[in-house]
Amino acid sequence: MSLTKLSEVYIIPMVKNDIDEVVEIEKEAYGPHHWAKSSFFDELQNNLAKYYSAKTSEGRLVGYAGTWHILDEGHITTIAVKKDYMRNHIGEAIIHKILEDCYKDGVKYLTLEVRISNIPAIKLYEKYGFQSLGTRKGYYQDNNEDALIMWTENIFYDKFKQRYNENIEQLKTLINIK
After folding, report:
1. Quick one: 58 exposed, middle or buried, by C-beta within 10 A (0-12, 13-18, 19+)?
2. Is 10 a catalytic residue?
């Protein structure tokens, strides 16, 4: 696997035309137990859902994510980056967009599940204030792996916002986010 260097990324709302490429990244990231194409079409029709595509300046889709906003809580349902584009801060740029939308919508808390073996993802989530508050035993169907359940504190708390703003300032020195 050769990594492709990327200096800018566009995080935009996912559209139906993105789904074929999203499913290819989904297969690459999650193997045989990935979401079906129909699941993404359904999510784009879900009024509680916000889905994002990460694209290069040439329009190549290199990552995606989805969240649900339910009252004052947000749930990151899925997030993945194309393997050749990992280590370009794309996942971090997506987290930035998710948090910005949560601030706009008054979402106070975010949660997600992550494989206990996915140390890079766990470190990224911890960087953005997520903490592990338990596990879901045998959550992943492909190998029965446990998932960490991670939550943020209230993202409107000064301590959280300060950490977030410091992370975003650092991120903006590494990649141009549009």
Report:
1. exposed
2. no
CB 86 within 8 A of CB 3: yes
Segment (H or E) for 101 = helix 90-105
The reported pTM is: 0.92
**3-class secondary structure, 29:** helix
Residue 139: CA atoms inside 13 Å, Cβ hemisphere, count?
Answer: 14
Q: How far apart are the first and last CA of the chain?
A: 27
**Mind listing the pLDDT tens digit for each residue in 62-117?**
999 999 999 999 999 999 999 999 989 999 999 999 999 999 999 999 999 999 99
Q: Which residues contact 108 (CB under 8 A, 6 or more apart)?
A: 72, 73, 102, 154, 155, 156
d(C-alpha 159, C-alpha 137), whole Å:
32
21 as an active site residue: the answer is: no
Architecture of domain 8-177: 3-Layer(aba) Sandwich (3.40)
Annotated active-site residue in 73, 113, 145, 153? 113
Give the active site residue among 51, 52, 125, 164: 125
Residue 106 phi/psi, 5° resolution? 75, 20
Domains of the chain, residue spans: 8-177
